[in-house]
Amino acid sequence: MPKTIARSTFVILALGFTLSVTDLSAQSRADEPSIGGSSQKSGKTRSYKKARVLQPSTAKKIVKIVEALERQKTVMVPDPLNEGQFIEKEEDDPDFVEAKEILTELLNRRDEMRSYDRSVMWNYWGYIYFSAEDYDSAMGAYENLLREPEATVPLRTASLLTLAQLNLVKENWDKGIALILQWMDEVEKVTAQSWSLLGQAYFQLGDFKKSRSSMQTAITMAEEEGYKPKENWYVIIAACIGEMKKEIEKVCEQAANKKLEEFNLLFQDHLSSLMKSLTSSNDEIGAKLKQNDDKISLLNTDVQNSIAKTKLDCANKNSATEEALFRKIESHFAENIIKIKGI
């Protein structure tokens, strides 16, 4: 499963949470009584807004808007029980043109309206824009609603979730996740579907650990709510495990490469030290050899001088010996001459 889920599938899932016009009208009617009170969640106390009654002029226009959006028409459809026969069926035929005209009238005098009235108006603008798939304008409408200080808790929480979904459709993952978490903190009950939406948003963001945790929570809650978890929830968990395994392998590979690099640096350091030591030893050996060469050369000079002296001494001795022998022969010869003459 690729990291990015098909956008069309994700859009269908995200928009599956949105309110219908019936939900909107029912919500507005539920807000009409002036009720004060608080709700408890996680140790927090939240006060309801008291200004929940629409101004008469606003209430009349809201009724017309609801009637326009709930408009239906009669159409003929094949009778499933009688082949070849047709029966009448009512189907939705909302009059968005009239609804927008009335909402525009409210918008033009919004400065005269109470904060609560404006919040209801923004809620219907959000629905109109959403139905037209103008998601940027829809987000702007719901953001305006959330800025209204007298927005009721039902309006506020519904708008938070819808705004979160729209941000996810626009691939604003961080903001969408933040809004879902804010919505979870403000509602009394969080459903399995909302946890699955959060899990898929985390998956798109690349936070596979949180995505897996959210999807497991969704599966557990679905079983508690009495229905079978969707198959793609398990697929996302499997994809998260696969991606996390890749991350672990990547981290291990990076750690191994780091250790190898450290080993190479250590080896290079030891090799450099060894080469320096060998170079130093070679220098010492060279110096000693040179000293020996100098000694040998000096000895050779001494030997040569001694030999030359010996030769000279021998030559001198030979010369003296020859001279003495010559003198001796000469003397002997002279004696023999005298002896001859005496005869």
From the structure above, extract its key features:
single chain, 343 residues, Serine Threonine Protein Phosphatase 5, Tetratricopeptide repeat, two-stranded antiparallel sheet, 6% strand
Structural description of this entry:
With 343 residues, this protein is mostly helical. It has a domain at 7-185: Serine Threonine Protein Phosphatase 5, Tetratricopeptide repeat, CATH 1.25.40. Helices cover 73% and strands 6% of the residues. The protein contains eleven helices and four strands, in the order ααββαββαααααααα. The strands form two sheets. The protein has a two-stranded antiparallel sheet with strand order 1-2. It has a two-stranded antiparallel ribbon with strand order 3-4. A hairpin with a 7-residue loop joins strand 3 (72-78) and strand 4 (86-92). It is rod-shaped. It starts with 6 loop residues before the first helix and ends with a helix.
Ordered list of secondary-structure elements with their pairings:
Blueprint: H1 7-15, H2 21-31, E1 38-41, E2 44-47, H3 56-69, E3 72-78, E4 86-92, H4 96-108, H5 115-131, H6 135-147, H7 153-169, H8 173-186, H9 192-205, H10 208-225, H11 231-342
Antiparallel strand pairs: 1-2, 3-4
Helix pairs in contact: 1-7, 3-4, 3-5, 4-5, 5-6, 6-7, 7-8, 8-9, 9-10, 10-11
